[in-house]
Structure formats: C-alpha cells, structure tokens
Specification:
With 206 residues, this protein is α+β, with helices and mostly antiparallel strands. It is built from six helices and ten strands; from the N terminus they run αβββββαβαβαβαββα. The protein is globular, with a radius of gyration of 16 Å.
C-alpha cells in the first residue's frame, strides 16, 4: 500500500525524531579480533547514529564476494532498488552477539517492504561465524571480509569499530550509520526514516 503524502510526512518526522533521540550507550569492538569469542581488542566505540542529508550522500561501495557458508553475492545485481542494511560483525565481538536478535527482528518486520539485510563478517574463523548465525537464527546472508569491503565505505562514512551498521538508500547511497550495538527501536527508526523518503528522481545516485 502506498502511503499518502501526509502519512509519509508524519512517518518521516516520527522516525527522524526517534533516530535523533536514541543515542547508543554501549561499546564497540575493534576489528582486530581473531574469532572464537576472543575479547582481545575490546575498546570504547563512538556512540550514536549519523543521518546523511539526501543532497550530501555518497555512493556505497559495491559489496561483492563469497558468502559465509557458500555461494556469492553482489549488491550491484542482487539488491535491485531495495534499501540495504549492512551490518559489520564478528563472532568474537560481544556487542555483535548482543544486537543479533534485534537485527533479525527488524529484517523480518521490514523485508516485505523492500528492505534487504546483508552482513559483513570480518576477521573471523568460519566455524565460529557459522555457529554464531546458527545459534542466533540469523536468516540473511553475510559476506566474508578480510577488511577490503569495510575499506570501501571510507569515502562516505567509514566503519568506526565493530559492530557498525549502514543503511543504503534506494539509489545506492549511504544514508545512515549506527556505531556500536543497535537496538530494535534504534535500528527500526533509522531504516523507517529512509523508507519514508520519496522515490528519488530517475538517474539520481547512479
């Protein structure tokens, strides 16, 4: 169902207010973990969320490669015009474990509205990473990363510790970033803010 302009405006205002009001108070892990629940390198993160004005957004990197558990993925061909939520995580990171349920909940609630989720599993051991997604019931895919995929965000909003979550708009631009652990409410607010935006003019951001 397509919302009326008035409904969409109220929805956007509500989401913006919620996103601005919610400031994460948890910590982020460094990206130097080695897998298997190793907490070495646990450092304070830069709490909070960043929302990028439409005119200031920059293209997200092409996220392509091998998927955890087998197969391949390319954001250039697989996401279409959907909004894409990208979560950088590792099984060795305590905040990643804490936020996993919230990520899956938001994914289940919004996937029918044109929202895809993609994980970027970093500096991990495959067995531990697979056990993580199995135990947490994570159903969306994750790319395996040695750091190169994360580096692609440096021209827009860089990864600022693990976990970091990005929201990529329908035109393939980085619209928002959440640093450190997200909650269901904080992540839903960010994604709904982007969902409430009008469809961009043809060719914008291509």
């Amino acid at each position: 169902m397509i919302a009326s302009p008035r409904t969409a405006s109220r929805r956007a205002a509500h989401a913006l207010a919620a996103a601005v009001a919610i400031i994460a108070s948890t910590s982020a892990c460094s990206d130097g973990g080695t897998g298997g629940g190793d907490e070495t390198g646990f450092v304070p993160g830069d709490p909070g969320s960043t929302i990028v004005e439409i005119a200031d957004r920059k293209p997200a990197p092409d996220l392509s490669g091998e998927l955890l558990g087998g197969g391949s993925y390319s954001s250039a061909t697989d996401r279409g015009d959907d909004i894409l939520v990208v979560n950088v995580w590792g099984s060795w990171c305590a905040p990643c474990r804490a936020e996993a349920d919230a990520l899956e909940e938001v994914y289940q609630d919004l996937k029918s509205q044109g929202v895809q989720f993609l994980g970027i599993n970093t500096r991990d051991q495959e067995a531990y990473a697979l056990a993580f997604v199995t135990n947490k019931g994570t159903t969306y895919p994750s790319l395996v990363d040695d750091g190169a995929l994360q580096a692609g965000f440096s021209s827009s909003l860089p990864v600022a510790g693990i976990p970091t979550t990005f929201v990529i708009d329908r035109s393939g631009r980085v619209a928002a970033r959440a640093v450190s652990e997200v909650t269901y409410t904080s992540l839903l607010a960010l994604v709904e803010l982007v969902l409430a935006e009008d469809d961009p003019p043809a060719g914008l951001g291509q």
